[in-house]
Amino acid sequence: MRVAIASDLAGFPLKEIVVAAVLAAGHEPIDLGTDSTASVDYADFAEKVGINIQKGKAARGILLCGSGVGACIAASKMRGIYSAICHDTYSAHQGVEHDNMNVLCIGGRVVGPEVANEIVAAFLNASFVGNDPGQDRHARRVEKVRKLEGKEFR
Fold first, then answer.
1. CATH no., domain 2-129
2. Which pLDDT band, with edges at 50, 70 and 90, does 150 fall under?
3. Catalytic one among 27, 87, 98, 138?
4. In the chain, at which end, N or C, are there fewer CB atoms within 10 A of the end residue's CB?
């Protein structure tokens, strides 16, 4: 599976570890930057990951910023992008299994390298169960979320 990866300056120190974790899990990382700790805006890198998923160049994405919050908010604004901050393995795999999450957001100032490796592995090894027998409730719930993307509330 191809995995788009990007970070802002605060997530950059953890990005190399995440790229290595994706490779170790047998997947192909697409490194979309940043490439230093120079000041950049997390929304620009969230957009790069989202576009790669929307265009089918990547199946999933991983975003890193200081807390994970800004990157997650930005990515979630894009149609078809289902992102969540996960700082534990349970959320990382269950977000995929039950909610069809396709973008993992991690706070580079929140988790260390070992925990990041475990979170990435849990995210990449998970698959959506909504199409499995007896699990249709998850597909129904995800479909309701998708319908919210097209609504405008006033």
1. 3.40.1400.10
2. confident
3. 98
4. C
Mean pLDDT of 56-73: 98
CB neighbour class for 71 (10 Å; exposed up to 12, middle 13-18, buried from 19): buried
Q: Is 98 a catalytic residue?
A: yes
Length of the chain (residues): 154
Of 119, 114, 106, which Cα lies nearest the Cα of 63?
106
| The two three-digit tokens of residue 112, written as one number | 């260390």
Cα 16 versus chain centre, distance: 16
* 65, 72, 86, 105: the active-site residue: 65
Six token digits for residue 152:
């405008």
pLDDT for res 153:
76
